[in-house]
Design a protein that fits this description.
The chain is mainly β and about 120 residues long. The strands form two sheets. Strands 2, 4, 5, 6, 9, 10 and 11 form a seven-stranded mixed β-sheet that branches. The chain has no helices and eleven strands.
Length: about 120
């Protein structure tokens, strides 16, 4: 099972960026998908999560600016980042929890760097 994240890059403050993360391999079902981020010298934190039926939750710091969505047919989760701020600079990781290779498990993507310039 692999999670491939993409879409990171350099963006100016106030701009937008869209991250994608596609899961592939022996997937029976995915329940929750999420985006985390880790800034330099800080702990990894939850940015946003989404359940299989579309319920979402967000960190307070990104509410109203970021939107998480998913395409269940493609086993893909997205993070639309609008009005980004320098403090959003971090490596962003996707995460998927479900039944993989006939076992319950959690998988992580490799991370994609997002850098916001002021």
């Amino acid at each position: 099972v692999q999670l491939q994240a993409s879409g990171g890059g350099l963006v100016q403050a106030g701009g937008s960026l869209r991250l994608s993360c596609a899961a592939s391999g022996s997937i029976f079902s995915i329940s929750n998908m999420a985006w985390y981020r880790q800034a330099l010298g800080k702990q990894r934190e939850l940015v946003a999560g989404i359940t299989s039926d579309g319920s979402t939750n967000y960190a307070d710091s990104v509410k109203g600016r970021f939107t998480i969505s998913r395409d269940n047919a493609k086993n893909t989760v997205y993070l639309q980042m609008n009005n980004v701020k320098p403090e959003d600079t971090a490596v962003y990781y996707c995460n998927a929890a479900g039944v993989f290779e006939l076992r319950v498990g959690i998988y992580w993507g490799q991370g994609t760097q997002v850098t916001v310039s002021s």
